[in-house]
C-alpha cells in the first residue's frame, strides 16, 4: 500500500505582507502631513491679484508715488483692527511711510452694519474736509472703541461729534454733519464696498502689499518680507 505523503503549503513570498503595507501607508501619510506643515509654514501670502487696489480719492499717508502701497481693509467696529493699528501701524509708519518707501491707505469694510457705515461716512467726510485731520480722527475713533462688549451701540452721531471736537487740526462740525449724509460721501463708501468685493475680503483687518494679500495680518515678519520683496523688484 502506498503511503500518503503529507505536504506543507508554501507561503507566497512575491507580494508584501500586511505589516509591510501598513508601514508603507504610514510613511506616505506622514510625508503628506509633513509637506502640508511645511507648506503652511512657508506660505505667508494669501491671494495675489493682477493689480493693487486703486488709491485715488482714498485716505493716504506717505508719498502717493511710493513704490510700495500698504492697504488696510478695516472696520471701525472691529477689535482686531484696533489692535493691528496700535501694534503694527506705528512701526510700519516709522520704517516705511516716513522714509518715503511706502504709502498707507485705509479702505472701509462694513461687516458690522449701520455702525460700520456711519463710521466710514464720518471718516470720508473728515477726509473731504481736511485730509490732514483724517488720520488723527481715524485714530481717535478706534481709541473710542469699547474695551468690552464690542457689539454694543457706540458709533453714533453724538460720539462722532464728540471725537471730532477734540481733533487737531480742527474739524468744522457743521460741515462734517452736512457731509456725512451727502451723496458724495455715500458714493465714496460705496466705492470701498466694491473694492472689498473685488479683492474678496473675508476678514478684518486684511492687509495688502501692492497686489499681494498677507495671509496673516498679525504676522509682522511676513508683512516686512513682502514689503522688502516689492522694494527690491
From TrEMBL:
<dbReference type="InterPro" id="IPR012336">
    <property type="entry name" value="Thioredoxin-like_fold"/>
</dbReference>
<keyword id="KW-1133">Transmembrane helix</keyword>
<keyword id="KW-1015">Disulfide bond</keyword>
<keyword id="KW-0560">Oxidoreductase</keyword>
<keyword id="KW-0472">Membrane</keyword>
<dbReference type="InterPro" id="IPR036249">
    <property type="entry name" value="Thioredoxin-like_sf"/>
</dbReference>
<dbReference type="Pfam" id="PF13462">
    <property type="entry name" value="Thioredoxin_4"/>
</dbReference>
<feature type="domain" description="Thioredoxin-like fold">
    <location>
        <begin position="58"/>
        <end position="228"/>
    </location>
</feature>
<keyword id="KW-0812">Transmembrane</keyword>
<comment type="similarity">
    <text>Belongs to the thioredoxin family. DsbA subfamily.</text>
</comment>
<protein>
    <submittedName>
        <fullName>DsbA family protein</fullName>
    </submittedName>
</protein>
<feature type="transmembrane region" description="Helical">
    <location>
        <begin position="21"/>
        <end position="39"/>
    </location>
</feature>
<keyword id="KW-0676">Redox-active center</keyword>
<keyword id="KW-0732">Signal</keyword>
Amino acid at each position: 500500500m502506498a503511503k500518503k505523503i503529507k505536504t506543507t503549503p508554501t507561503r507566497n513570498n512575491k507580494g508584501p505582507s500586511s505589516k509591510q503595507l501598513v508601514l508603507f501607508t504610514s510613511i506616505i501619510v506622514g510625508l503628506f502631513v509633513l509637506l502640508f506643515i511645511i507648506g503652511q509654514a512657508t506660505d505667508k501670502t494669501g491671494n495675489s491679484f493682477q493689480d493693487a487696489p486703486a488709491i485715488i480719492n482714498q485716505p493716504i499717508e506717505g508719498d502717493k508715488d511710493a513704490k510700495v502701497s500698504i492697504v488696510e481693509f478695516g472696520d471701525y467696529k472691529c477689535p482686531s483692527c484696533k489692535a493691528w493699528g496700535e501694534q503694527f501701524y506705528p512701526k510700519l509708519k516709522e520704517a516705511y511711510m516716513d522714509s518715503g518707501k511706502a504709502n498707507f491707505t485705509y479702505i472701509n469694510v462694513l461687516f458690522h452694519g449701520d455702525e460700520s457705515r456711519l463710521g466710514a461716512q464720518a471718516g470720508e467726510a473728515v477726509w473731504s474736509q481736511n485730509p490732514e485731520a483724517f488720520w488723527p480722527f481715524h485714530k481717535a475713533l478706534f481709541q473710542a472703541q469699547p474695551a468690552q462688549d464690542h457689539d454694543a451701540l457706540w458709533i453714533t452721531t453724538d460720539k462722532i461729534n464728540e471725537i471730532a471736537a477734540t481733533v487737531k487740526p480742527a474739524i468744522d462740525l457743521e460741515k462734517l454733519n452736512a457731509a456725512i449724509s451727502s451723496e458724495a460721501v455715500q458714493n465714496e463708501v460705496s466705492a470701498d464696498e466694491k473694492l472689498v468685493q473685488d479683492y474678496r475680503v473675508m476678514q478684518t483687518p486684511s492687509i495688502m502689499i501692492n497686489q499681494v494679500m498677507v495671509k496673516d495680518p498679525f504676522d509682522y515678519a511676513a508683512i516686512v518680507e513682502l514689503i522688502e520683496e516689492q522694494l527690491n523688484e
